[in-house]
Amino acid sequence: MKSKKWAITVGVLGMVLTGSAGVYAGTQLETIKAYLNHGLAIEVNGQKFTPTGEQGKKLAPITYQGSTYLPVRSIAEALNTEVKYDSQNNKVSIGSTSSSGAPTTGNSGTTAPSTGANTQAQGVKSKYLPADFPLPKDAKTISLVENVMDGKKKVSLTYSTKETLTVLGASYRDYYQNQNLTQNVQDLGADDFSIVGRADGKFAVSISGSSSNINEGDNEVTVVWGEE
Length: 228
Hints:
The protein is an alpha+beta fold. The chain has 2 domains: 2-94, no CATH class; 116-227, TATA-Binding Protein. Helices cover 14% and strands 32% of the residues. It is built from 3 helices and 13 strands; from the N terminus they run αβββββαββββαββββ. It has a 6-stranded antiparallel beta sheet, with helices on both faces. A 3-stranded antiparallel beta sheet has the order 1-4-5, with no helix packed on it. Keywords: Signal.
């Protein structure tokens, strides 16, 4: 499960930074032979996307030794992820940071995730999840696919958080407790959790959480939700 989810993230972290001439001033550069791949179509959350650089100039993916690299700043902006380039230290930072420069940690793990407007703000921008769907304050989207099939909304979301799996599992358990699910299977633990439920004629949902095998201290949650 994790290998597929993190393939997207690792790809983003390996993308080429654009828009700053200072990148080329370093001493660690190596000349390579690569190709601009004008034939590759890009979609972000199911929508056609064309990467752009300064002054709206279109950017093409680069193919090198069987791997394809995308412009990190343009892609990150499309995914609502902050990217900063520190020319003095020749460093690229992806994601939000605190004033001290350390990654923002969000909840301490002692309170349940906040609900409501979080589905439309901060790190997760879901159009179709219920407005009160519980999400931790520090949730950051890893992948999000939303579409409408036969007039019914479908969502597949994976996000990362510092929130504990115990708190997350309990929050989702409590959220669905009074929704009259005809099928409700729960497996809650400190190291992982899963919740599968169905409300006849309304929706079906599957939620699973586990620790990240990429970023120590992070947890990953995958939500698959769809109208019936």
